Amino acid sequence: MTPEEFRAAGHELVDWIADYRAGVVGRPVRSEVAPGWVRDALDGAPPEAPESLDDVMRDLRDVVVPGVTQTQSPGYYAWFPSNASLESVLGDMASSGLGALGITWQSAPALTEMEQVVTDWLRELCGLSDDWHGAIHDTASTACLVALLAARERATGLSEARGGLQAEPSPVTVYASSQAHSSVTKGVLLAGFGRDNLRVVPVDPVTYAMDTDVLSRMMAEDVAAGRRPAAVVASLGTTGTTAFDDVPAIVAVARQHGAWVHVDAAMAGSAMLLPEHRALFAGVEEADSYGWNPHKWMGTILDCSLLYVRDVELLIRVFSTNPSYLRSTADGEVTQYKDWGIPLGRRFRAMKLWFHLRLAGAEAIRARLRRDLANAQWLARAAAAEPGWEVCAPVALQTVCLRHLPDGMTDPDTLDTHQQEWAERVNATGRAYVTPAQVEGRWLVRVSIGAEPTELRDVEALWDLCREAAGSIAP
Length: 475
Ligand SMILES: Cc1ncc(COP(=O)(O)O)c(C=O)c1O
What we know:
Elements: H1 3-22, H2 37-42, H3 53-64, H4 86-98, H5 109-125, E1 133-137, H6 140-155, E2 172-177, H7 182-190, E3 198-201, H8 212-224, E4 228-235, H9 247-256, E5 260-264, E6 289-292, E7 305-309, H10 312-319, H11 350-360, H12 362-385, E8 389-391, E9 399-404, H13 412-428, E10 435-439, E11 442-448, H14 456-471
Helix pairs in contact: 4-11, 5-11, 6-7, 8-9, 12-14, 13-14
Bound molecules: pyridoxal-5'-phosphate.
């Protein structure tokens, strides 16, 4: 494709994206395609000769669009917001157009230095001190794994340079609450700690925050038995109910044993942009690493996950490689992000954050977050005031956890089934998408407000829909 051909096709694609976003409201929010339908529709002989853009665009419209959940719809309340602001889409396009290769500072100095600039901007916007050093990863799962690998190496005095964990004289242990995201368990397993060395700390039955007394006991028992606590993963904004662990208490306990504290605020981290909500993030400044995803609520298109660490020197000792072909005269003077994590090749992810922040401005982002928080409070008040409904977890941010309790329905399992049924009825309308989830053994329905176009009137319509759906189920 020549640049001139690209210009024509690109204009068409941009028009298509703009039309798609403008018309997303009318589309069924949950993808209703059957398993295999997309594959069958797209399958055929591999293209030997070029096809027309029209043919590709037709499949994009007719097959791909119905084959995705409409996360940019005002009716999207599932999982967590996955906003893709159009400002950040432009940045992603610029990054693709540039096609920069991020393997060392030398391969694209702007890629490295813009990443320093935007991670510093977000650090400042979140009120964190300049003791923190940030990098952009693909996901919070990777960020957590990186933190756990650093924690492992700190706890074992860089065992990777000897026989690794296999040669360690005693096990090293990791702690996280029962409400921590599944990526924490995955990280613990992949970092080689082993499931037997993951301590699942129970949570408070009302707030769903980690029980730090039990954490303290578990750590003391491990130490008494000759095991070495390596890390605690604290969750700020759990996936189930947006619960906030008590980070100051966790840091205090972890410090007694020299354990690393990683704070996972994948979704909730956006709220740190709001000074009036910073109290929820107390203690983060004392942790060892802190991760959150602008690609969720804040709205910088996936994939864009920030990991801040305090001890970059340790990170570099754990992750650095230095093959001859990657060396340059700038070594020693510049940041080499390849030494801050797992991959060598790096996309120019900073560009989408840079476009997003520059074209939208922090104040507009903050205003949108505040709108969502107010909408969540509206829904929580409406549900709490409605007989037969329960708001079953504190509404710390923008996710409201609901249970419908019909008159006379008392059997816990029947109630669990009922929650899943009414959520399914809501979702089947195509007008909204909510997620039922099991939290500490019981089913509830999560309404995660915060899609970029969702206004109060949409939340009001959703609430009508929830009541209609739940009321339509015969007892
Ligand atoms: C609290 C929490 N941590 C981690 C993750 C994983 O995020 P990612 O998809 O970026 O790996 C999620 C995803 O929703 C989450 O809610």
